[in-house]
Write a structure and sequence with these properties.
By secondary structure, this protein is of the alpha+beta class. The protein has six helices and nine strands, in the order ββββαααβαββαββα. Helix 4 runs parallel beside helix 6.
């Protein structure tokens, strides 16, 4: 039995509240169980220096956790004067994932920065950030298209992500913190429809077999379909 009482392939209760903030071109609050992430997308009419003149746009991301997002207070990284390696790794993942789902030629020479701020953490924050980040990005692009600034839609099928792993010998989907902290195998599946964008997978307590990997992938694809439906509903 999972600590939450969920079935192995069952994801946590999911909600996405679009337009959560007033000023950002796109925003949402995504809740995956007790993990809550505020995602905003900001549009700038320029691109980084190294791609100026290429006709290509740029999508990037920043990620952070509020001091009391977890059960004990964490020090603000701004106070420490630098980002942790974990923060840098996660925000690079979010940026890569969202760029993979964007036609940068259709976006044109503008940059969209997606900020993902974890209000409350209970496992799976990077996956929730990717799913919510796409919703914020979609809403920002919708605004550009409505204003006539974008003649062609640079986004297609939603980009989403789900954690799956092996907990006490059983493949399970959408790990919460009690499972994630004790998982034998931990993985993050970044998806666009039925296709994989990125897979992060590691053995924490034991090795895993090809059959177990296939089972986890099947769970990720099934859960990804539910996430995609929720993303589309949020932006419709």
């Amino acid at each position: 039995m999972r600590p939450s009482g969920r079935q192995p392939a069952e994801i946590r209760p999911l909600s996405i509240e679009a337009g959560f903030t007033r000023h950002a071109e796109g925003s949402c609050l995504i809740r995956m169980g007790d993990t809550h992430v505020l995602c905003t997308a900001s549009v700038e009419p320029s691109v980084p220096r190294w791609i100026k003149g290429s006709g290509l746009g740029w999508v990037t991301a920043e990620y952070g956790m509020l001091p009391r997002a977890t059960h004990t207070r964490g020090r603000r990284e701004a106070a420490a004067g630098k980002q942790s390696g974990r923060t840098q790794e996660i925000q690079r993942l979010i940026g890569r994932a969202l760029r993979a789902g964007t036609d940068r030629s259709a976006l044109g020479e503008r940059q969209i920065t997606v900020d993902c701020d974890v209000l409350q953490a209970d496992g799976g924050t990077r996956c929730a950030s990717i799913a919510g980040g796409w919703v914020a990005l979609r809403l920002a692009v919708n605004g550009l298209m409505a204003s006539g600034e974008l003649p062609h839609d640079p986004l297609g099928t939603p980009v989403t992500a789900l954690s799956c792993g092996i907990y006490r010998g059983t493949p399970v989907a959408d790990l919460d913190y009690p499972e994630d902290s004790e998982a034998d195998v931990d993985g993050n599946f970044v998806l666009q429809g039925e296709d994989l964008i990125e897979l992060q997978m590691s053995a924490e307590g034991k090795t895993f077999t090809r059959a177990e990997l296939d089972a986890l992938l099947d769970m990720a694809l099934a859960g990804g379909r539910d996430l995609t439906q929720a993303q589309l509903a949020a932006v419709s």
